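Re: the multi-chain job from yesterday

Posting the exact lines I submitted so nobody has to dig through the queue logs.
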Amino acid sequence: MADVIEATETHAEDHGGHGEHESFGIDNRKLGMWLFLSSEFLFFGALITNYMVYGNDTFGATVVPREIYDIPFTSVSSFVLLMSSLTMVLAHHSLAAGDQNGTRTWLLATALLGSIFIGGQVFEFYEFINVYGMTLTTNPASSAFFMLTGFHGAHVAIGVIMLMSLFGMSRRQGGLSEGHGMNLELVGLYWHFVDIIWIVIFTIVYLLGAV
Amino acid sequence: MTATAERPSKTIFRRPETTEGFWSWITTVDHKKIGIMYGYAAFVFFIIGGLEALLIRIQLAGPNGDFLTAAEYNAMFSTHGLTMIFLFVMPVSAAFMNYLLPLMVGARDVAFPRMNALSWWIFFFGALFIYSVIFFGDVTPPLGVEGVPGNIDPSEQTLLGGLPDGGWFLYQPNAGPDFSPGTAVDFALLGLQILGIASLISAVNFIVTIFNMRAKGMRLLRMPVFVWMSMVVAFLLLFSLPIIAVALFMGTFDRAFGTLFFQAAGGGDPILWQHLFWLFGHPEVYILILPAMGIVSEVLPVFSRKPLFGYAAIVFAGGGIAFLGFGVWAHHMFASALTPVAQAAFGLSTMTIAIPTGIKIFNWLATMWGGRIRFTTPMLFAIGFVAMFVIGGLSGVTHSIVPSDWQQTDTYYIVAHFHYVLFGGSIFGIFAGLYYWFPKLTGRMMNEALGKTHFWIQLIGFNLTFAPMHWLGLQGMVRRTWRYAPETNFGPWNLAVTIGAFTIALGILVFMFNWTWSKRKGAASGLDPWDARTIEWTIPNPTPHYNFAENPRVTSLDHFWHMKYDEDDEGRAVRKDNADEIVAQLDYDGKNPKAPIHLPNPSYFPFLMATGLPLIAYGIIFHEGLAGKLLIAIGAVITIGSLLGWGMEPLEEPHGGGDHPVEMAEAH
Amino acid sequence: MTDEAHHAPHPTTGQYVKIAILLAIVTAVEVALFYIDEAVDMAGWDGPLLIILSFFKFVVVIGWFMHLRFEKPVLSRFFAGGFILALSLYGIVVGSFLVGLVTR
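And the result, structure tokens for all chains:
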């Protein structure tokens, strides 16, 4: 452990030489965002655990999530979310290259793809509830399913709000400044994180079904 | 503030500028003011939690007590636990960290000053939200158990009986919709959720502050131990809070929206709650004790006039405790349906915790060994901490032996154990810190005679209260039970416990008097009242609002000590000059000392944003009516609106109140 | 992550598109595996394969789209720390429930 600290140290002094502080040479906000995202693993981990424990818990009800998944449909919305990561990274890339128009376009595209994903989830929930009669309170498996995918959907929705705020700012005169570049990067990190969580959910919950 | 021609930018509000009076406290982003507010709020809850404890003790003073009803008793022990853990020890630790971290690492503020204010206001409103249960909470009798003695008719609900009554652990399904049907438990679940958000924000903020805001030359292994322990705590918070957040959401959903996570009658598994709760709950106990360990590691070397023995060992032991602390949660669940393998594994992992803890204890003892000890009040409390914590730690080791733990589960032995570590540990450490850094806060000393009186009353009262609980527990006195029969012979020791509890209360009264008196009349402290070792004492007392006139440079651990002392040929410390002279000659980087200092500007948004969350929480509790839905909408609009306003507001106004050339001149 | 990785040039637009295409293909393979397992039983091989493939996607998104490959190693340590902690803690919890199911 001492080695690790010493190693980090050298690094800190290499890069902290210019500022007023001893530092790790990483922007405060970026470091904060990465720390927050690392803690989100524990958040979604608990929700996934919850689903894995209860996934088969029908408790007498006739319908469980794993039997009514629409795999082709969810595959398409997974694809949509995956591609939104591409548009997000392109928005960031465009801003770094000073291309304001490109930034705007890719931001809007990302928000749009995110909204399509949420739309798909709303449709899925609607089908489950109204066609299959599986609601939040049918059995522990359905409770866990809606809780997990719902909280993920809420994260996507917050991401869309942040993207739209950035888009709104980018339309003001002069577009996004260099200072906003960090905001864009932070939103991007959050957005990709939400995407990797969906990669896990799609495999564990949908493709593998319940354990 | 300095008058500047240009007005601060305007987003939704005019940027607040005031640094004095009511609004300055509402809009402040100064870590010191935030720390002070945290501290006072926490102390108010300490008093409330203490009064709850006294009510419990009156009820248990003799057999068949009839001072409280069973419902009131349940509410009292539950809110006592919730209050002391979440509304006292955690926020008072946050107060220390807020006030001291930037000073100890040599920064002018934390990394995210407005988020710091947000964290405080979220805590404040979350705490008010929990206690607002008095006005909005109701406890209806559990389904199918009307007429059970102790359960009350809603019309007979008393003020105290309406508080959350599910224990601080809120075990399910007892705290679920069937067995706790009123709204009281909702306030606990949602309130803890809000407090968790506050702590998570603080955790990120403190880690970034420690990593990125250190003074030049302050390498990680030159940081004071308190800073190290704060960092460890911040990581524990960062990784354990999301777990309890999910558990609290699940509990809330069970109650509000009819999910079936923990409702055994609907197929749910209450053991999952225990796992999730203790996955958080065990790191939580280290969150409560590590800041106190940090404080004690600062106090002991100063008053032993020796460097901390085994600095690196203490630091790594702190990290080790945190790491192991994540792997022992199931020892809280030995009495539940764990497999024998799991019980053996968790028993073993629990024993290993004793290793890093032992390392710390021995290093503290070695620090004192051979030192020229000054028995000041902070030192007495620090020594008290070490002694009491050892007792609590040893009884803790007995829990790791599974059959022994079965015997102790749910008895007063457990109550004795965790009060020895949390009161004898955390709270003694906190008092050591309060006495030690009081001059930093006020520029005055606390009265030593009163301080020592306080210490001895508290030490005697504490042991009179909690030592007999070991014996009562081993004799079979069960926790969370509102009365006991005379034939049990629990009476005499319980009376002793009650007398002890009131003795502690007397000690606290002495402390409160001392604090209030010393704030106005205490002797002036000067620059360096304790002959301290760390750089927060190189700046004037009370701390100027810009902290350091110049960005400090650090060349060693215990930097201030090395500025003051040289070694003679035989390795003895020789005083160079008095502290004032040394500090007056400080010239860190030869900068023009009249250079303006940029400080972040105050802001309305943290306060405003924090008001949104309790509104949403009320809305969830009363979501069946229109008012509830409206509250959710209003709360969401406030939160998101202030977030947007915040996003558009710069941290520092380009020409606003952030520049302080005038005070700079005064400082030199 | 080595120092070399730290100084490696950031990907270009074309490379990002290629990475996205790769991710899309892996997703298609995953879905295909699901149906192959429906048609002919893969004797339990579908599970590990799916987990490996999704972990591959997971790592690629983190490494390239989130730029973690190009950041200072300390960020990777925190992030990996959170992930590994979550994996071990929840692994034990899920494991204890599975054991419970078997012995019940």
